[in-house]
Predict the 3D structure of the following.
Amino acid sequence: MIFTRITLAIAQRALRELRREPRSFVFLVGAPALLLCVVRYVFNSPEEFAGTGAMMVGVFPAFSMMVVGSIMVVRERNRGTLEAVLATPASRLELVCGYLAAAVTLAFFQALCTTAVAFGVCDLDTASPIWLVGLVAMLSGIFGMSLGLAVSALSKNEGEASHFIPGAMVPQLLISGCFWPVAEMTSWLRTVEGYLPLSAVTRSMTALRENRFGGMSLVYSVIAMLAIIAVSQVGAAASIRRRTA
Amino acid sequence: MSMPAIQVTDLVVRRGGRLVIDGLSFAIAPGTVTGLLGPSGSGKTTLLRCVVGVQKVCSGEVRVLGQPAGCAPLRQEVGYVTQSPNAYADLTVEENVRHFAALYGRPKQAATAAVARVGLTDAAKQLFRTLSGGQRARACLACALVANPRVLVLDEPTAGQDPVLRRELWQYFAKLAETGVTILVSSHVMDEAARCDRLLLMRDGEFIADDAPAVIRASAGTDDLDEAFLRLVEAPQLAATASLNGQRTPATPAGVAAGPTAKDGSRANYR
């Protein structure tokens, strides 16, 4: 990621806009924690909750940030500010990285809130220390934003972007092991699971729950997430057109 | 021989399958205010977008300050205000202008000065969404002015402004031009067109007249620019005469080719 003056200016602007909408801000930061509480009481005991719960600590932030990210570029295009920004020296990569930088701040508060509720309210128990779980939850949020930005850059309008939620995110939720153990799925679904972006989140969270400091499984998943973030940022930048018909 | 600030050669643009600009060529001298006039749908915005470099073109060349329009170094030099004035609705005027100052690498003081320049100092702390239409246009103008551009492309910047503000803005444009800034501005309002050094009258993607306002009035045979505009738009043969009459004008200094090319390819009347 490139931290330039322009990237930071765009991040600052995106955060400032969000601050003017306190309800969206509260929802974004608090929703994953709230959902986690619901999931906790879907199960009878903290022990039964642990497997799914740990995954959700990463999946909910990733999901909510993706939803936010998926309208970012589309919104900017629709209200006409994209044309003005692209006429300035700001590069397209700086623009999407600006949004990603804003996501870092948001993901921090979101992960703080989600992890606190997971361990404090839902009695989650993991082999890894809480701070590491929080850190990976934060990375999951940033990861979700980068996926959202890629969707956003590809979409013509908000309607099109919203189709990616049932079309791309929900299937991943279903297959990546949040609802049913991957090991018990049919073989072709297990193969598909191996290639889903969201699997990087669920696998790293499972690794954190099972092993102290996650082990190699966590290392691989984190590398996968970072690689996908890089690819989707470059892809998002490339699919924004400076010249339009 | 000075290099033209804007040089367009054989420009052809299609939008939505329709030929919007068909083989347009002209040049604009640096430090001038050029008005782009024409009926709705005549291709004014498309032409401005070409100069800024955000429009896909079929063929032809657009060079600004000697470089291809829209190239990275030029984005520092060209300010652009779009027709529908858009900025970040949930930010104040000052925050919007400061944001663009940051994108152009200009200091905060430049933002304060740009806000004052467009007469919005009193509304600086107001959210963009709460501004009137005219105020919005001025806020967006400030976002472009903050770049300290050498070329300013304005798409109907004075729409929705009261006469006093319009006059102030035009006086400011003239002052900017004196400092060497090249201004290309589209407009519907004829009384302000009179303030331009040179007018380009557009119809169906072609120039039907290209001259100083006084010459256009004379060739259309009326003192009223509004009436002159109507006569030229409605009577193509008169437009041809207008072009013929305008051999040499103060707005097109020697050395700058400033001629519309007719559809049949014959170079019309200017050298």
